[in-house]
Design brief:
Residues 71-91, 197-260 are annotated as: Disordered. Residues 76-91 have a biased composition (Basic and acidic residues). This protein is 41% helix and 12% strand. It is globular and about 55 Å long. By secondary structure, it is an alpha+beta fold. Residues 1-6, 74-79 and 246-260 have low confidence and may be disordered. Among the domains are: 81-138, SH3 type barrels; 143-204, no CATH class. The chain contains seven helices and seven strands. The N and C termini lie far apart (128 Å).
């Protein structure tokens, strides 16, 4: 099959997928595909976002999926981003020699070189750096866990979050093993990234639910005191007003011409 036929087949398949997604996302509406570039771009962005959620829900690395998909395309079979690609682990000499994973790249019209986007576990913001400011990272420490063998930093980050979510519901007999694996993952991440262990825990640990606003009941007991009725039995009736006492009529005053 020629490249032209291969691309035509891909285009037909992609068009069918996008139109099907559009019908599910906007049922009953008219299609603006191929007529409104901004609409088409927004629809494709929504589709990619949903695909990322699907990949994450199935324990897949979405960045690796995107990278693999681009690698199978004739247009991107060559390394169009230079020496680095999405999923590569790199070291950042200008950022404290910290290590992270490339999650994307960007090209601006004013700059000929590619700027790579690097995610460092424990750092809340993405670091942007050109290829000249990147170096090869050391291999991630091989870490054995109950989830399997961890060999990459993004695997370790995902495994730690997953184990942290299990800890609250784990049986008492399993909690020690889960905590031990969490500690091993934090130790491996800290030694590889250069980020302190306490900072990694603060960033990766589950966040507590927001506290109740001030001035409102903070627990069921306080709520019961403020509203001592069971709402499952319906709204309590309003109390009947107390019978009004007859008003005392003013005693008529006698005028000068009235007899006593």
């Amino acid at each position: 099959m020629t490249d032209h036929g291969f691309n035509a087949t891909q285009l037909a398949r992609a068009t069918q997928i996008v139109r099907t997604y559009e019908q599910r996302a906007f049922p009953g509406g008219g299609s603006l595909l191929d007529r409104d570039p901004l609409y088409t771009r927004a629809l494709l962005s929504a589709l990619i976002n949903d695909l990322e959620h699907y990949a994450t829900n199935n324990d897949l690395n979405f960045a690796e999926v995107i990278s693999s998909g681009r690698a199978t395309s004739p247009r991107h079979s060559a390394d169009d981003t230079g020496p680095h690609k999405v999923g590569d682990e790199v070291r950042l000499p200008l950022h404290g020699d910290r290590c992270g994973t490339i999650v994307g790249w960007t090209n601006s019209r004013s700059q000929a070189e590619t700027t790579f986007l690097v995610e460092v576990p424990g750092i809340p913001n993405i670091i942007a750096a050109p290829a000249a400011h990147l170096a090869q990272a050391p291999p991630f420490p091989r870490t054995e866990t109950i989830l399997g063998t961890i060999t990459y930093a993004d695997q370790a980050e995902h495994a730690y979050v997953s184990l942290g979510g299990r800890l609250a519901t784990a049986k008492a007999s399993d909690r020690a093993a889960v905590r031990r694996d969490c500690d091993k993952l934090i130790e491996a991440l800290s030694s590889w990234t250069g980020v302190p262990a306490h900072q990694l825990r603060n960033e990766l640990d589950p966040k507590p639910p927001p506290s109740a606003p001030s001035g409102r009941p903070r627990d069921a007991a306080a709520a019961a005191r403020d509203f001592p009725y069971d709402l499952t039995q319906g709204i309590p009736p309003e109390p009947e007003p107390a019978p009004s006492r007859p008003t005392k009529q003013p005693r008529p005053r006698r005028g000068p011409g009235q007899a006593a």
